[in-house]
Design brief:
rod-shaped; single chain; 159 residues; 3 helices; mainly alpha
Length: 159
C-alpha cells in the first residue's frame, strides 16, 4: 500500500470516528433534552398542583367569609325585628297603662274590667290549689266587691 492509500484509509477512519462521535453527541443531546423536558414537565405539574391547592384554600376562605357575613346580616336582621317587636310591645304597654288610668276613673267600666280580669286569671290558674290576687290599695274595696261575682262566673263556665 502506498502513502495515498494509507492517507485515504486514515481519512476514512477519521471520518468514521467523527461520524460516530457526532451520532453519540446527538444521542447525548437528545437524551439530555428529553430528560430536561421530563423534569420541566414534572416541575410545571408540581407548581400547577400548588396553585390549584392555593386557589382551593382561598376559595374556601372566601366561602367561609361569605357565610360569616351572611350570618352576621341575618343576625342583624333578627335583632332589628326583635327590637321592632320590643318597641311595639312597649308602646302597647304604655297605651294600655294610659287607657287603664283613664278607665279607672269610670267606676262601672273599671268594675266590669276587674271582674273580667279576675275571671281570666282564675281560668289561667284553674288547676292550682290556690290563687293569690294582688291589687292596688285604692282598688282593694272594688276588688273585694267583684270577687264573689267573679267566682260565680267561673263556676258557670266550669259547668
Amino acid at each position: 500500500m502506498n502513502d495515498a492509500d494509507v492517507s485515504r484509509q486514515i481519512q476514512q477512519m477519521v471520518r468514521f470516528i467523527h461520524q460516530e462521535a457526532d451520532e453519540k453527541a446527538n444521542e447525548i443531546s437528545l437524551s439530555a433534552e428529553e430528560e430536561f423536558n421530563v423534569e420541566k414537565l414534572q416541575l410545571v405539574e408540581a407548581e400547577k398542583k400548588k396553585i390549584r391547592q392555593e386557589y382551593a384554600r382561598k376559595e374556601k376562605q372566601v366561602e367561609i367569609r361569605r357565610k360569616i357575613e351572611y350570618s352576621m346580616q341575618l343576625n342583624a336582621s333578627r335583632i332589628k325585628v326583635l327590637q321592632s317587636q320590643d318597641d311595639v310591645v312597649n308602646s302597647m304597654k304604655e297605651a294600655a297603662e294610659k287607657e287603664l288610668l283613664h278607665i279607672s276613673n269610670h267606676h262601672h267600666v273599671y268594675k266590669r274590667l276587674l271582674n273580667d280580669l279576675i275571671v281570666q286569671s282564675f281560668l289561667l290558674r284553674l288547676k292550682e290549689p290556690s290563687v293569690l290576687l294582688i291589687c292596688r290599695k285604692e282598688d282593694l274595696h272594688l276588688v273585694e266587691s267583684v270577687l264573689h261575682s267573679a267566682k260565680e262566673r267561673l263556676l258557670r263556665i266550669d259547668d
